[in-house]
Amino acid sequence: MEATIYKELWLFLFMKLLVLNVVALPPLTVEALDSSDFCMRRVATKTCPTPPTIDTIDLHTFLGSYYEVGTTARYKLRSEGGLVCMRSNFSMDTPPEAQANVVTIDVQNTGLQVVGIESVSAFSKISYSAADVCANAARMCAMMDTSSKLSEALVRIGTVSNDIAFSSPMDLKPLNHAAAIINSSVANVYRKADALALTVTVISRIAAELSQGVGPYDTLLRALRSTVTSGSNEVRELGSNVIGNLTYTRNLIAQVITHRTNPSHVELLSEASTLIEQEIELLISQVSRIQGLLSSIGGPLADTLEADASLTNQTKNIVVTKGQVIQTTGERGNMVLSIKQTIRPYKIIALEGFPLLGYSSLLVYSCELDSNGDPVEDVFLLSSSPSIPAPIVNILLNLASTYGISMDCDSVFVPTVQTTGDCGLLPH
């Protein structure tokens, strides 16, 4: 599908103009892309976004070597754990014009492993635990939306309240109080879920730095454990407050039931109480699950990282993986990558440069649904140079965000280390 926003000259001039006039732009940083409203995004996101693709790519210009400037933390920790200086080289044995409608491009990814093998495994497990925390937080969000059991309970409470508004003011007061508590609990869950998502974002960023040997290792490990403890306390507080308040609403409803003689009112209030009880049980399960996941990150997985880092004389190995990219004429922006015995779709959704002068940066996106039917999204920023100016990075990531691409919780964008002296060990 031809990208509606794209004309090569227009995009090149547009990106350059934005750099020259960055002071006129609204303030935007990478951090701004993973702000609050986690519940709103996760409940609304049921399928993979379909951003427009750049389909008029000149293959001769596209071929060559690119530096990975950054990617999502999930991909960094699972597929590039312990690797720095990541580079991708695209090549073809047969010229594009000599191939048929379907074009095959060889891809070779190269990186330098800077941590031990035990740490590589631990980083992957941290990522899976972080993703599970995000998924459970999203389920808590879904438990609070307009189709939830709590919403159904509120409807039943509201029906009885309307019926007795003038006839039984003494019973109306506790029912109104119960409804207010439920609404307050819903708002509290939304706030805590937002906070939890940001906690996972911090955990993912710290893990990505540890994975690439960034900063004082001991300091980062302490920060990781401290962040996990803070998040666990937030979840514990959420469980205590919300579950306690919802239990109190059941007591209020029970008091009213003892006064009501109308069978319809008794039935509606009993159903409301049962729905609230079911929601309490689900919340207990989610809170327990999230606390267990956080404990695994801050406990045994962090311990593994610490123990592995204490080993001396760890060899820095060059890691090479090879695969193939399949493109179709007329849809150059839509690709299928086969690598490491996996096949995934990829889309080129933005680029900077001229066909005759070269492409200086590319924004690549991939999304698949997991076994639960939830989107698993990854973003990759590639460049012909080891770095891209921060304003350009922010513009490209903001573009992805406008397409509905999620970069929050465990899928936060993290930079790839390209400036260490060890990168010189890799062949150019």
Report on this model:
The protein has 428 residues and is α+β, with helices and mostly antiparallel strands. The chain folds into 2 domains: 8-114 and 316-425, Beta Barrel (Lipocalin), CATH 2.40.128.20; 119-309, Methane Monooxygenase Hydroxylase, Chain G, domain 1 (Up-down Bundle), CATH 1.20.58. Helix content is 50%, strand content 21%. It has an 8-stranded antiparallel beta barrel with strand order 1-2-3-4-5-6-7-8. Helix 6 (149-163) runs antiparallel to helix 7, helix 6 (149-163) packs antiparallel against helix 9 (263-309) and helix 8 (217-257) packs antiparallel against helix 9 (263-309). It is elongated. The model is unreliable at 1-35 (pLDDT under 50). One of its GO terms (biological process) is response to reactive oxygen species.
